[in-house]
């Protein structure tokens, strides 16, 4: 079976798909990831990637091209920092439209038996409809997607027709990774365990040692500096100075020179796989990105979420509502808040409950027979 994956070229989207792609490869199926600039990061996971639109900037397509045509939506997105999901998704329909013809052309050449796409990329439905093959929609995270997909598909009517898909697209099989106790409402489709993928690395010796005092990880994603500056990082580092814990900053290639000399209990490690850092950790301070949030849920670690845009707000609210984390604004960060993150037994107990719940969910490998039946039209 040949399976084409379609995704935005963002780590928080692609990383959710990797364990499912691995499960398919382990059963001997062929997998190809179709995306554009930035998606090459999953080649490190052993996956083949086709860049169908070299040079394309998805932010420019969404907010310049889409925003020019729908300034009302752009205004809503800017006012809500991306929290207005309906407006944001409609603008991303313009990105999907731009890449659709090239993705359909790739698919006609590669001839997949099944198309899997994450919910920001309903271009996967265009491909499936154009080729007459089944589709699977991966709904990672806490957003309830049916109304969001509906507005995107409405915006993309001409995209389907242009690619020869004149009939309404067939209903995709929906897959989601949210544990029952964190659902805001019932989800259609099949649930699957969230298995963290944060890349591989040669690990330093200290990473496998059990910490002598609480370890708190600080990770604000791959684009925090460009999106909202380092204010959250600065405030967290300064508040950490008087906390009896070791803080590990995993900020990738972000330039941290403006932070100055770090406190003695704060270590910067650049980039390391987050799930490795969270093993044995007492807490995580982060921006609320989906991949980061779900890695913490899988690890059973209490979270302090300081959202800075898009679905980060939903993730922060859901984590706090389940009682396994805290949320706030940058100005809320102080020593007392960090101490509560580490010392609150209720947060730790609830995080452990959700970890056990996730461990009991079906593994990605259990979906492979379902996909095989779907491809055979059974």
TrEMBL record:
Membership in a protein family: Belongs to the glycosyltransferase 28 family.
Name by which UniProt lists this protein: UDP:flavonoid glycosyltransferase YjiC (YdhE family)
PANTHER family: STEROL 3-BETA-GLUCOSYLTRANSFERASE, STEROL 3-BETA-GLUCOSYLTRANSFERASE UGT80A2
Swiss-Prot/TrEMBL GO biological process terms: antibiotic biosynthetic process
Domain Erythromycin biosynthesis protein CIII-like N-terminal: 22-221
Classification via Gene3D superfamilies: Glycogen Phosphorylase B
GO MF terms, alphabetically ordered: hexosyltransferase activity; UDP-glycosyltransferase activity
Membrane spanning stretches: none
Keyword Zinc in annotation: no
Protein keywords: Glycosyltransferase, Transferase
Superkingdom of the organism of origin: Bacteria
Positions of the Erythromycin biosynthesis protein CIII-like C-terminal domain: 235-373
